[in-house]
Amino acid sequence: MIRMLAPALLFVIMRPLFCPAVMFYVDDSVPTSGDGTTWETAFTAMQEGIDAASHGDTVAVAEGIYLQNIQFYGKNIVLTSTDPADRSVVASTVIDGSGAGSVVTFLGTEDQSCVLSGFTVRNGRADVGGGIAAIGSALRSLATIKNNIVSGNWAQSGGAGIARCDGLIENNEIVGNELDPDGLGGAGLAWCDGTVRNNLIAQNLALVGGGLYGCSGTVEHNIITQNTASSGGGLSECHGLIRGNLIAFNSAGWGGGLQYCSATIQNNIIIRNQAARGGGLAHCFGLFLNNTVTYNVAGTCGGGYYDSRSVIHNCIVWANKAPIGPQFHIPYLPWTEPTYSLIQDWTGGGEGNIAEEPRFVNAENGDYRLRADSPCIDAGLNSPDLPETDITGMHRLMFGGKSFTVDIGAYEFFYTGLQKGPGQDEATLVWSFVPDKTYSIFYTDDLVNWHVAIDKFPSSGNQTTSWTDDGSLTGIPPLLAPRRFYRLLENP
Question: Which CATH class for the 415-492 domain?
């Protein structure tokens, strides 16, 4: 009997693993809620769709205003509007929490295949995570949150917009969320330790960390602007990698742009923030590399930087304003002096520092790229921590002056038309050609040993010249190397 039943039991246990994904539909304009299997028989409530779905299923939601508070309950499903890439559809597909708790709640056991995409999430009101939250401090959802508008939410303790979500948070507008004046921190996001990428984080209000608080994953390529706090207007206590962000027009009592961020902070533009102390940054520790800090204002001291214990390389600190220490104010010694940086009116020590005008392309109109005559070109330090690309994704070192040296600031100088275009497992370098010229192409994987990949590479005769590194001349394909830098030199 046991021998005969065992195969049947195995079949019953394994069968759900092979069930195909199912699509469910939600539309609150249908007269009566149906079985959710077609638009004509759609559910009228999102929670009905979530409850009906199983792992791997998708719930598509028509445009409308849904007065609901929804919970995923740990299900790895996709909840999506009809077109998450269309901002007008996102704005018209609304989940309104009616002030009755978090608008969207994750159990905390979801993985990356769980997706919330294409909604306006508004009018939530909760202790933590008014807009989107994972339940409990020990459970941190890895759900993907992308292409949403998270706006007009409130929280008592932290994370008025999004809290305790450790998955990918990408391409969202997290705008106009507010924390209670006695709350801990993070009106935009709090305690989100995954990757926060390509978001607009703006006009959020908190006591600490107007934009982000306690987010210790990777914070990259965001626009963090017009956030307000008593300390840390843009970011506070974020201890992961902070790179490639525009941090601008934030305000605080301490640290208009950033405060208490002990992280690697690289390739950021930190401009036009204001605070009583530390217009750009205050009390930041760690590694400060290839940033541009300019036009920040402090009411008392430290227009650019206040009380820094960071290791500072390759940074521009220029045109900041304060009655005391307009660029740097370091009230507590000792501190590590910056190196290979451009600092206005600098008279201190530190190897390789310069005090000349950086010569931006057009700072008044927000263009902080380097002109061809900038003293920042080839004036930096090729440290072991050098980022492979600049704030735009341009490869560092590739073109500019006549040495194998990085530029100072968030932007690497390049001639018009120079870019890096990745293939499947290769890198293609494309640059503006000069007629009847040849080029030497160098590469390095360690910033110490440079090798010639090809000598006397000719102009193509078209408007641009290109060369592809597929690994045949450099040992291994570039995407298999930990990192790779290139240098193009025009031969005489």
Answer: mainly beta
